[in-house]
Amino acid sequence: MAAASASRVVAVFATVVCSCPRTGSGTEKKLVSKHRPAIRNRLSSSSDSKLKLFHYNNNINIPTNTKTKCNAVGDSSPVYQGIYGPWTVDPSDVILYRSGLVTAAASFVVGASAAFLPDDIRGLIEQNLDLLYVLGGGGLGLSLVLIHIYVTEIKRTLQALWALGVVGSAVTYMSLAAPAGQGLVQYVVDNPTAVWFVGPLFAALTGLVFKEGLCYGKLEAGILTFIIPAVLLGHLTGLMDDGLKHALLGSWMALFVIFAGRKFSQPIKDDIGDKSVFMFNSLPEDEKLGLIEKLEQQKLGRSLD
């Protein structure tokens, strides 16, 4: 019973975060039921002037008097069918999102490899640890700007954590590391309490990989959700010996490479979910009613056919 309840909670959370409900799903029925009384009232009045203000594009079934950007079916971009009508996607946004992840992963792996390499090679990497940190943090920031999470509060929280981590990193470097004659990364390695300042940036990374694991069932992302905080907390508290810390760090590196590489094996549309849901949520309430009314009429027409 508990396992079934947990499974339902995860399924609901995945639907909310990833916005991948199927037509005819419980999500769609709940949305239609929510607006059904208002739709009936509108249909009962033939003199409803507001109803005349809805001008629909015959190709995409989305009101054309909104600010939501959507390409027509005649455009070159592929068209996908969503709950509230067809939608298209700009591949460049997804490619940039994935490129940010690759930049973050590559920077982290190169920097972390210093813990496993001989001294002569390690020295070259250690001289550029802060540069790699900036590149990796920048790549993560780019991905968090372009990430598609349909609950705005969750997206903004991840972005706020990233920004807090960037500010904390800058303050740590200028106030603590630089006066001590050290780089930021080396200072955090030598002074575990500095994790408090840079930690929010890695919390944002953890949230991103959690979203990817939840939405796409990626095992490596799910494992990273636990490894990333485990390494940071182990370093912060001093409760983790160097052997275990290095083992987890090596696992983090390997899984991060797999995670970033596998992003390019996904279809472009999978990083978007059902964009029609996002477009619907951005509409004013009156226009939501109009769109649902039209979809109900289309559904009724098909059933009569």
UniProtKB/TrEMBL annotation:
One CC-aspect GO term: chloroplast
Keywords: Membrane, Transmembrane, Transmembrane helix
Source taxon at top rank: Eukaryota
Transmembrane segments: 95-116, 131-151, 160-181, 193-210, 222-240, 246-265
InterPro entries given in the database record: DUF2301
A Pfam family of this chain: DUF2301
Stated name of the protein: Integral membrane protein
